[in-house]
Amino acid sequence: MLLKRWLVGDPLKSTQAAHQRLSKTIALAIFSSNAISSVAYATEEILLVLILAGTAAVAWSIPISLAILFLIVVLTISYRQIIYEYPEGGGAYVVARNNFGEQPALIGAAALMIDYVLTVAVSVAAGIAALTSAVPSLFEYRVALGLAAIIFIVVINLRGVRESGTFFAFPTYFGVGIIGVMVGIGSVQAFFGQSASVSPGHQTAVEELTLFLILRTFAAGCTAVTGMEVVSNSVKAFRRPESQNASVTMIWMSLILASLFMGITFLAYHGGIQPKTDETVISQLARLTFGTGALYYAFQSGTMLLLILAANSAFAAFPQLASILARDGYMPRQMATFGDRLVFSNGIIVLGIIACFLLIVFHGDTHALIPLYAIGVFISFTLSQSGMVRQWLSKKGPHWRAKLIVNGAGAVTTGIATIIIATTKFTHGAWIVFVLIFILVLMFRSIRSHYKAVTEQIALTRDHRPPLPRRNIVVIPINGVNQAVIRAVDYARSRPGEIQAVMVDVDTESTARIQIQWAQWGCGVRLSVLPCPYRSVLSSFLDYVEELLKKEPDTWVTVVIPEVLPAHWWQGILHNQRALLLKTALLFKERVILTDVPFHLKR
Amino acid sequence: MLLKRWLVGDPLKSTQAAHQRLSKTIALAIFSSNAISSVAYATEEILLVLILAGTAAVAWSIPISLAILFLIVVLTISYRQIIYEYPEGGGAYVVARNNFGEQPALIGAAALMIDYVLTVAVSVAAGIAALTSAVPSLFEYRVALGLAAIIFIVVINLRGVRESGTFFAFPTYFGVGIIGVMVGIGSVQAFFGQSASVSPGHQTAVEELTLFLILRTFAAGCTAVTGMEVVSNSVKAFRRPESQNASVTMIWMSLILASLFMGITFLAYHGGIQPKTDETVISQLARLTFGTGALYYAFQSGTMLLLILAANSAFAAFPQLASILARDGYMPRQMATFGDRLVFSNGIIVLGIIACFLLIVFHGDTHALIPLYAIGVFISFTLSQSGMVRQWLSKKGPHWRAKLIVNGAGAVTTGIATIIIATTKFTHGAWIVFVLIFILVLMFRSIRSHYKAVTEQIALTRDHRPPLPRRNIVVIPINGVNQAVIRAVDYARSRPGEIQAVMVDVDTESTARIQIQWAQWGCGVRLSVLPCPYRSVLSSFLDYVEELLKKEPDTWVTVVIPEVLPAHWWQGILHNQRALLLKTALLFKERVILTDVPFHLKR
To answer: What residues contact B159, with CB distance under 8 A and at least 6 apart?
Structure first.
């Protein structure tokens, strides 16, 4: 507990919640790092596909990134409308629930959840790749480094939203700033024609430059826009007026994202950079622009920080979504409530564990994770936008036609992109996402139906008070005659009911001794001795209780356990854990009531 | 549970215990594999030290092994007397306890325990080394293979003594037999002068052949006699007449051990074999004798089986010793009793875990473990023998003078050997053993003093029945009005005492609703609403109970918990684990009695 307090701080009062709201400057750092950090790998993913068609095909990176720029613009405009319509946040799940009903909403929720988990895994993996591009000797420790990064983010997030925002704002701005500087200097160099350029090794084509390959490139580039939905899902975290602040933040985010992405793609093309296995594209670009000096290393560390902090935005969004789902009964109830630092602690911990698992399974390799990425986000984009279309059609309201057109354009664009991504990436791993969505939706539904069943079963019918069994037999298991046992017997004797003590005959000699002592101390309570052929005291006693329940179908059995408790927890190992085992076993028997009469040792 | 039954078999009745006794043939396999298997590494350890003084020094292996042969003879004769005097087994601990008192007995017990653990680790490591000498590609998996071997032995042992004996007898005899064949063929070849011999690479001396080096060689060779005490510690496991059968078994064991050890040392010297890093000495010897054919591989697998099964003898002896110590109050009580297969299950599991730990820490390397080995066994040899000397001096009895001389010779011989081993190996790791013995003895004593304190605290004084608190307040924590809660309230109302229901105000809306429902269903029981500023229902309630206890110093507080239990254990994750947390927290409060009223869901 002390460790927990030191790590996550003292508990916060519920009334302090408003104080935890975020300013635009900090919100931009928290919620945009996810989207902006994708510039660190999106261009590389585009080039990796195009290079399959040979060096000449690389020129296609420019039109393809223009298409992605178009996507950014459409998403920004259409998401601003969602921000104003859904100030409580929740994104695709809430929009789809309100406009399409349960099934599409759950698909949206599943898609979003998968994407948040992948955001953490991909961003941390890419961040560590930035580190190992600069310091190759750390490459073999990349999984351990990634795990350490995740654990660090988890702890910071358990401290609370505003603290993690303040903590992470500086490195985020540092990362964005230094990428901006690189793009700026690179552009000036390019403009004045004094730019260096690598002498590109000619790459022979292994595939033809088909339409499919171009679409696959587009799909790969779509990773650039992942994370754009985060602001709209987190409107509640902003200071008042929430929607307006969120909207301004969203526009800033899109401007930064668009200019950095276009700049990097252009410079990479201009500099003739080709993807390498051992160094990232933007690391090459930074080396070309800055030389391999102090600025290069600052750039790499900035990129690394930005990427690792991108993971942080998922830690704000995932628990929020899990909590909304839990309140609707689709997730375990523990996810619904704030922890003692006003964050959804359980959601944060679950996300951290799954992301660590992914990182280990995929050996911390960004490229292995990328094919799974983006598909979930685009499904949720499409659901949100088409949900809004439906909303305008049914609800109408002022300027509904204009708004319909905006969200309609968003729905069509993201819908087409979703189909392209699903088709071109399907065999490369996107199928896993569909399977997972299916499993998650099943899980949501069965959790909900379990809770419904529980509610039905424990509900009280209008005027019927279910009667208790008429009789109550009190059974006290003993293993000797001592103060703990006597206390339990006296407690049992102070209430009504037939009482019997029961002991298991492990050793005839001590059984005889106890029987003699019982005659003096037992106060006339009958002592039954149970045979114990298999030396398991526990099962002998359980069999006895089972018999009793069978013989008397209209009877409670109250088991009064005399429990000797050590003064220090570490002494627990020196005591047979029989009381605990007994309690656990009895808990699952019907008509058995457990009473624990403790005897606390002083030393 | 089903898995457990399938692995270890159905429980056995106590009356079946006699049936589990061992015949001489099987006892020889179980108890002698420990001692005999040492021939697989003892010669190598001798050569490893001698080679430091150059190739010529290797001739010293012959006189040194004659000294060890002398040790074997002395130990055999003197241990036979212990077998007859102590038919209940227990070895150094029992002998020292009866003749020297507590402190030396505990030192003996600690030394023996350490040695049993090391036996498992060393034997398994050496067994895997036999395997990897023959199949070098498995070398990198040696730790995993070792762990698998230990787990396998643990499971077999949990099935019971006789079953493991039967199971292990064949491979043990196979291993002993094939080593015997190798020694036989090798000797014939040597006698008729047609033996091959490796052309020894000349090894330059790095140390002088000092007396210290010779003594160190002797200490290294002493690993050959480790395990000789096992038979005398396990007399109880033999069929009647126990002592006589054990004594015959001991003699057979010594004969086999002595002839194989002397044979291997002689052949290794005659064949000019020098220790190598990548192949064991007896693997080289077998290759020389058999050639690298089917017989060689049979030899290696036989050695491997013999060594791995040597670990098995420790699994019979360690739990036996732990159980004796536990009955004397020096070990946790759980170690004292038979499990449901008539073996000391807890001791077997503990030994397995510690051995696995050692194997991992020392990377499964025999040579790294050897310096720790033997010292424990020789301390226990010396304690046993000198304890017997003391016994003959005080008890006398028929032929006591002759018996005194035998055990006296044993005490002096093993005492000198102990001093040699301790001195020469001290800096190589033997110091760890002394530290561990110190820690273990401390642990034994503090366990004993804890149990004594417990007994004193719970003991009843002659005529004084400690009174119970006069008043009893029943507190029922509720979080809604439903069948589970109503059942708990009705149960509480059926016994005397003031009753109050308590709920924590997490959400004002639902609090108001519950208060209205309570008016209908609460039967007039007062409902207190607790504030919950930190959203921790648990701590709010605990604070309330704490207050109550402070306010009413002469009162019991009985907390009646309405617990909803899922129909299937895996549904448990969908329920807040509040009942469990609450019970755990309340258990450690004085004057709090816990009553659990379960409500079992049907689906």
So the answer is: B7, B8, B9, B341, B343
Q: Say what the pLDDT of residue B194 is.
A: 64
Quote the CA–CA distance of B64 and B467 in Å, as a whole number. 73
The answer to whether the complex's ipTM is over 0.90 is: no
Each residue of A15-58: pLDDT tens digit?
Answer: 555 556 778 888 888 788 889 999 999 999 999 989 888 888 88
Is residue B332 within 8 angstroms of chain A, CB to CB? yes
Average pLDDT over residues A458-478: 85
Global pTM reads 0.74
Residue keyed to tokens 């009005």: B481
In this predicted structure, the answer to whether residue A94 has a pLDDT above a threshold of 60 is yes
* Residue B6 confidence (pLDDT) above 60: no
Strands in B555-565's sheet, in edge-to-edge order, are A526-530, A498-504, A471-477, A555-565, A592-600, B592-600, B555-565, B471-477, B498-504, B526-530
Beta bridge partners of B526: B500
Confidence of residue A12 (pLDDT cuts 50, 70, 90): low
Closest residue to B332, CB basis, from A487, A574, A590: A574
CA–CA dist A183, A175 (Å, integer):
12
Q: Count the alpha carbons within 13 Å of B434 in the hemisphere toward its beta carbon.
A: 12
For the segment A125-131, the average pLDDT, to the nearest whole number, is 91
Shortest CA gap A596–chain B (Å) = 5
Q: Residue A350 and residue A520: Cα distance in Å, rounded?
A: 57
User: Residue A529 corresponds to which tokens in the numbers above?
Assistant: 């001795």
Pick from A379, A369, A366: which is nearest to A420 by CA?
A379
Burial profile B367-382: b = 16 or more Cβ within 10 angstroms, e = fewer: bbbbbbbbbbbbbbbb
Residues in A 430-449 with any Cβ partner in B closer than 8 A: 447
Is beta strand B592-600 parallel, antiparallel or unpaired with respect to A592-600? antiparallel
Q: Which of A539, A593, A599, A602 to mutate to test the interface with B (most CBs of B within 10 A)?
A: A593
pLDDT at A157 over 60: yes
User: Tokens for B453?
Assistant: 């304190």
Short-list B349, B50, B335, B69, CA closest to B225: B69
Strand partners of residue A600:
A565
Which residue would you say has higher pLDDT here, B345 or A187? A187
Q: Would you state the pLDDT for residue A350? A: 87
How far apart are alpha carbons A232 and A383 in whole angstroms?
14
Residues of A whose CB is below 8 A from B495: 495-496
Chain B residue at shortest CA distance from A489: B468
Average pLDDT score, chain A? 86
Angle at A561 between CA A555 and CA A566, to 5 degrees: 165
* Contact status of B191 with chain A (Cβ, < 8 Å): no
**Is the pLDDT confidence value at A194 over 80?**
no
DSSP characters over B549-580 = HHH-TTEEEEEEEEEEE-SSGGGGGGS-THHH
Contact indicator for B257, B183 with CB cutoff of 8 Å: no
Roughly what angle, to the nearest 10 degrees, separates helices A91-100 and A375-395? 40
Average pLDDT, chain B: 86
Is residue B8 predicted with pLDDT exceeding 70? no
Closest CA to B97 of B444, B482, B582: B444
